[in-house]
Amino acid sequence: MTPENDKPQSESPELREKIVALDAELTEDFKAQFVVSPFLSRKIVSFQGNKDKPAYGWYKYKEAFSAGLVEYFLCSYAGRMSGKVLDPFAGIGTTLFAASAQGISADGIELLPIGQEIIPARLLAEREVAPDDIAKLERWITDLPWKASSERVPFSSIRITENAYPQETVAAIERYRGALQQENSKIQTILRLISGH
User: Fold this and answer.
1) Same structural domain for residues 90 and 31?
2) Full domain range(s) for residue 170
3) How far, in Å, CA of 33 to CA of 12, rounded?
4) Can you spell out the DSSP letters for 70-115?
């Protein structure tokens, strides 16, 4: 390949016409397979459809599909599926939780740290939190135990975030992390999500 071929082509009128013609050809070839469903509105295909669902308000993950869309497709294939659902871009686990709610086994892969925090925290909150854990979480809400904590756990920063926070904010975050270390792993997982650390 020569260097001239490596350069992106500018969008000439001829190229644009060719793209439009190819699009029209593909649309014609596949129009018998297109189905218009009024149910599949903007709200249902985007994260907006999750606004009223518990747990989805923890973090506004705009890249997600709505749970309703995933449920729609899973129901469309009900009785014709075997095995597992694999979501290679699991995000905050929308597909995993929707499949699980329908009794379908599901696995997911997620590289973003926020998804890696949210999915386990939600699993814990929905399946493993005991009444004494709820009492501890309520204590964190009402008593704010980190404010009185003498234990501090530093957090790392990168050059671009150095001095990004006032010293009193850094101290509060470090005290929060110190107080967090006194809790069991379930509480730590949930409170780490809440704090963003």
Assistant:
1) yes
2) 130-195
3) 32
4) HHHHHHHTTTS--S-EEETT-TTSHHHHHHHHTT--EEE---SHHH
